[in-house]
Amino acid sequence: MNVTETLSQGLKREFQVVLNAADLKSRLDDGLQGLQGKAKINGFRPGKVPVAHLRRLYGRSVMSDVLQNAVNEANQKIVTDNGLKLAFEPQIRFPENKDEIEAAMEAKGDLAFTVALEVLPKIELADLSDVSLTKPVAEVPDADVDAALERMAGQNRTYSNKGEKAKAASGDRLMISFVGTLEGKPFDGGTGEGIPLDLGAGQFIPGFEEQLEGAKAGETRTVKVTFPENYTAPHLAGKPAEFEVTVTEVQAPEAVKIDDELAKAFGMESLDALKTAIREQIGRDFGEQSRRKLKKSLLDALDAKYTFELPPTLVEQEFASVWSHVEVDMKEAKKSFEDEGTTEEAAKADYRKIAERRVRLGLVLAEIGEQAKVQISDDEVTKALVERARQFPGQEKQVWEFYQKNPQALAEIRAPIFEEKVVDHLLEQVKVADQSVTREALYADDEADETAEAKPKKAAKKAKKADAKGEDKAEDASA
C-alpha cells in the first residue's frame, strides 16, 4: 500500500492510496484460504474445496471485503502517521473507469483511490486568568411564594351550582355538551358530553368561550369558530366550524382557602411546611437560571479568546440545524423576513455567525475537556438516561432500549454532561463574583445580551435559546 498526500489546504486534506495488483492478489488468496476451512460445498469434503473453485464462487465477494478492509487500513494509517483529528468520516473516491475497477476486482491491475479528509484545527488553550465574571443571585421574594400558593389553591378550588337562572360570567365553570360540524357534517373529535369549561381560562378554540358568557343552565347556543392554522389536527386546521353547545350547569368558584388543609392536600404536614417547600423549589429554579447566565458569560468570554479556522462541513451542518428552526418558526408565525425588517439573505448571514460561534465553542470545550481529562461515569449516563425515559410515561422501556442500541443517540445524552463538567472546570480558573439582583433582572430576556444578535428575533427564539444555554457539541468533537 502506497499513500501520498496530494492536498493540504486549510483543514482539508487529500491522500492518494495505491494498492498494487500483487498486494490485492495476496490479500484475496489469504481470504480464500481462510474461507477454505469453513466452506461447505456439495461434492467436497470440509476443508478440501480447491481454492480455484472458491475463487470462481466467492472471489468477488471476498475481494469486496478485501477492498473494504484495505480502505479502513488506509484511513487508519493516514490518521496515525499524520497525527490527525478528523471532523468527519473520510470520504473515499474510487476511479470512474469501470475497467480499472474490474481489473482490481480480479486482482489483475492496481487500484488507486482518493481519501478526502476534513480535520479539526489545532487549538492552543488561552490563558483565562484575566477573565472576571459576575454571577447574578436573587433572593426568593415572599410575593413569589404567595403567588405560588394562590395558584396551588386555585387548582384545588371547588365550585358550587349558581342556580338555573344565573348567567355565566368569566371565572365560572360550565358543564357542557356539544356537537361540532364542518360544512353541516359532524367530524371526529367534535362531540363531547359532560365537559367542564372554565370561562376565561382559554382552554378551548379562540372565540369559543366568549360566546358562552351570559348563558344559563339548560340553554343551547350555536358557537361559530375557526380552527387555528397551526391546529394539531391537520384536517381541521384553518377551517370554520359550528358547535351546538348545551349548558347543563353553571357553577361559581368558592373562596380559596390557604391553610393547613390545603397543605395536606399536597402531602405537607402544615402550611409552613408547604411554604418552605415552595421557597426551596423557587430557589432551585433561581439557581438554575443563575447558572445559565453565568455559563452564558463564560461562553462569551471564551468566544472572545479564540479565533481559528472552522471545519466547513461542521459549520454547514450546524447552520442547517439553526436555519430549520427559523423556517419552522417563521411558518408557524405566518411572518416574512420583510415583516421582521430584514431579508432572507441578511438573516442567513446573521444565523451563520451563530452557527460558527457554536461550532467554535464546541471545539474549544472539547479541547479543554480532553486536556483536563474530564471523564463521564457510567452512573452519570445511566442517571441522565433514566431522566430522559421518565419524560415518556408508559414508554420507558422502549426509550431505554432505543438509546442502548443507538450509540449516536446515547452520545446526545453524554454531551451535555461532558459540557457541564468542562464548564465547572473552567469556572474554577476564572474570577466569579456574586451580584444581588431582582427576580426580574435574573429572568431578563437573554436576547438583549446576545453577542451574535440576529433577526428575526421571534422566529429563531428556539435557536437563540439553544445558543445561550450552551453548544452541546463538545463531546461530539472530542470523540
Explain briefly what this protein structure is:
The chain is α+β, with helices and mostly antiparallel strands. It has 3 domains: 2-118, Trigger factor ribosome-binding domain (Alpha-Beta Plaits), CATH 3.30.70.1050; 158-253, Chitinase A, domain 3 (Roll), CATH 3.10.50.40; 293-478, Trigger factor, domain 2 (Orthogonal Bundle), CATH 1.10.3120. The protein has 14 helices and 11 strands.
Q: What is the CATH class designation of the largest domain?
A: Mainly Alpha
Order of helices and strands: EEHHEHEEHEEEEEHHHHHHHEHHH
Beta-strand percentage range: 15-25%
Query: What is the approximate shape?
Result: extended
Number of domains: 3
How many β strands by DSSP? 11
List segments where confidence is low: pLDDT < 50 over at least 5 consecutive residues: 447-471, 475-479
Class by SSE composition:
alpha+beta
Main pleated sheet: 5 strands, antiparallel
What is the CATH third-level topology name of the largest domain?
Trigger factor, domain 2
N- to C-terminal separation?
A: 28 Å
> Helical residue percent?
40-55%
Catalytic activity: [protein]-peptidylproline (omega=180) = [protein]-peptidylproline (omega=0)
Main location: cytoplasm
Region (Disordered): 443-479
Pfam family, one: Trigger_N
